[in-house]
Amino acid sequence: MSPSLRTRPLTGVLLAGAAVALALGLGVGLGPTTVPLWSATTSMLDRLPFVAMESGLTEAQEAILWELRLPRTVLGMLVGGLLAIAGGAYQGVFRNPLADPYLLGVAAGAGLAATLGITTGLATTNTLPLWAFLGALGGVALTYALGASVGRGHSTTVLILAGVAVASFLTAAQTFVQQRNAETLREVYSWILGRLTTVGWDEVLTLLPYAAVSSVGLLVMRRLLDVLGVGDDEAVALGVPVTRVRVAILVLASLGTAAAVAASGLIAFVGLVVPHAVRMLAGSSYRVILPMSLAFGGAFLVFADLLARTLVAPSELPIGVVTAFFGAPFFALILRSAGTARA
Q: Apex CA 172: angle with CA 170 and CA 173, to 5°?
């Protein structure tokens, strides 16, 4: 391996750290009310044990920082990181660069459950994430059940086809419900297009346990994704329990995706594009792809949210519109480059 290739993972790690730091700084500093970055940093350091520093922020700026900007930025980091690391895991398990976190019916299940909750009036602002979470898990469960019913439920091809069938059915059901309840279309689409709305730390604390279990579990198993990449027969010969590893990775990735969707709605392209960008920076080893996807995904979503809340201020764009605006052309360039390389 050439020296330049050996340094690519290290370069990627440094870039990921810089992206996270920049996203955090801009996320807490920019907005209708300016919060100076150094003062915000000082205020955060002042909250550490045995540290006493004067930030110079007014009471209003402190409230904006700690009750609005910082929780929203951290939530964006968690959601973006979960979607990106889940996307990388899906692509590794299915050995398919087009795989994304919504492949097994997560998005369709969450969308149907959220739509039912909104149209029936049973879901409040506080309980809507729970509806979406349960719907997302239900969509994945239906996919696994359908795959298992044909006797080869752990085959990646069968799971993909089952996911397509389940997603199509649940999406059709959601469309039917929306048509029957047209007066709630605006609220439904507001959730579907994605949003990061938080006042205080409740949403962050709710998401944090799922994020920890999913991301830590996937990071622990990232070396096994490299082994799966050489083929099932070779992996079995190396002593890897292929079926159990594949199911465990899919369960962890689906859990993280379901939690992210419950917190933010349906945000497209993060889990599809970010792992590709990481491969361009650091190569094809999942030992590097997964942790870097976690970092870059969080930073990307914070940048997207920053644009969503500042481009048309005082109004706010759906964050899914922003991610699609940047993600779709980038993905088209990736496809074009791949096609040119094969030619």
A: 65
Q: Which of 284, 292, 143, 273 is nearest to 215 (CA)?
A: 292
Q: How far apart are CA 191 and CA 118, in angstroms?
A: 10
CA 12 remoteness from chain centre: 19
pLDDT band (50, 70, 90) for residue 81: very high
**299, 22 in Cβ contact below 8 A?**
yes
Residue 154 neighbours by CB under 8 Å, 6+ apart: 147, 243, 246, 247
Q: Which residues contact 229 (CB under 8 A, 6 or more apart)?
A: 92, 95, 286
Q: At 51, which amino acid appears?
A: V
Q: In which residue are the tokens 């059915």 written?
A: 169
State pLDDT tens for residues 48-66.
Answer: 777 777 777 778 888 888 8
User: CB-based burial of residue 297 (10 Å sphere; 0-12 exposed, 13-18 middle, 19+ buried)?
Assistant: buried
* Model pLDDT, residue 342: 52
Q: How many CA atoms, within 13 angstroms, populate the side-chain half-sphere of residue 244?
A: 4
What average pLDDT score do residues 227-232 get? 82
Read off the pTM: 0.89
Class of domain 23-338: mainly alpha
Q: What percent of the chain has pLDDT over 70?
A: 94
More confident residue, 188 or 50: 188
User: CA–CA distance from 14 to each of 2, 21, 52, 220, 223 (Å)?
Assistant: 20, 11, 30, 21, 21
Which of 194, 191, 221, 186 has the alpha carbon at shortest distance from 75? 194
**What whole-number distance in Å separates Cα of residue 83 and Cα of residue 267?**
9
Residue 296, number of CB atoms within 10 A of its CB: 27
The string of pLDDT tens digits covering residues 65-78 is 888 889 999 999 99
Six-digit token pair at 54?
A: 């004067």
Q: Where are the domains of the chain?
A: 23-338
